[in-house]
Amino acid sequence: MKNGSDLEAPGADILGFTLPRPARPTTPLHADGERRRHYRTIWISDVHLGTRGCNAAMLIDFLDHVDSDILYLVGDMIDGWQLKKRFYWPAAHNDVVWRLLKRAKRGTQVIYIPGNHDEVFRQFAGMNFGGVAIRRKAIHRTADGRRLLVLHGDEFDAITLAHRWLAHVGDTAYTLLMVLNRWVNGARRRLGMPYWSLSKHAKAKVKNAVAFISHFEEVVAHAAGSRGVDGVVCGHIHTAEMRTIGKVAYYNDGDWVEGCTALVEQHDGTMELLHWGDEIAARNAAEAAATRAAAIAA
User: Fold this and answer.
1) What tens digit of pLDDT does each residue of 96-108 get?
2) CA 44 – CA 213 distance, rounded (Å)
3) Which of the 8 DSSP states describes residue 17?
4) d(Cα 254, Cα 239) in Å, to the nearest integer?
5) Which of 175, 216, 234, 169 is nearest to 199 (CA)?
6) Which residues of 95-129 are buried (b: 16+ CB within 10 A; e: fewer)?
7) Rounded to 5°, angle at Cα 78 from 238 and 190
8) Do residues 249 and 224 touch, judged by C-beta distance below 8 A?
9) How far is residue 76's CA from residue 30's CA, in Å, rounded to a whole number?
10) For residue 148, what are the CA distances in angstroms to 1, 13, 227, 269, 277?
11) Could you tell me the pTM of the whole model?
């Protein structure tokens, strides 16, 4: 056990291509000189690097404003399904990878639990690459003594398990929705409006999607309870959530395609979901207010 994580150790470049140095260097300070926020633990998942739907710019902003002792990458960090169809890897996706590797180099305990879209990395479970430990699952011990099972969650998705072809069809439809989502948010940016997830809104309105999400959460929580842990952290369904199901604490860290969310643990064990689009909007509003106040004072 190290820094709160019970892990189930040599390295190589398993991405298959050379990553140039990041275009946007990391910094230990905010632009205004304020120190970054520091958490005991951060969980992120479903980044889907290698796709146009990946909100790399917002994730880079997140990584430039927060730090942690432990960082869990809870699956679907890279989208192998889409990369097999068409290679897409812009500079911003390099920047994300370099920031994550930089954290491991400076001492952050980084645990990568591959999901179904990056399942190719599951064959390396039990190994370490560049300071990143690859595991199929892990047990995280919170500061207040609770044991949380950490896994991606596709193990409990009947469509992924029993009807892989249907999962790929759904993935194609989802990719098209992400294209529309980019157009909508491009227009909103030009109008000075904050980020808004079209696909997240659509899921909330579709009865079958709501029923699937609720069933998934209950199945995952029940499975975690049967393993004798206090809670579970997962990703996979792109729906950030914190709730108690029976006696089990269920946490889903969301994604960086639609919701742009992360799950964090404070140093006393308190858990919190960060909605980074809201964080950026609040920051921009505060900066605008400060600019107006300075202009009035002048």
Assistant:
1) 999 999 999 999 9
2) 18
3) S
4) 5
5) 175
6) bbbbbbbbbbeeebbbbbbbbbbbeebbebeebbb
7) 65
8) no
9) 28
10) 14, 30, 10, 12, 27
11) 0.77
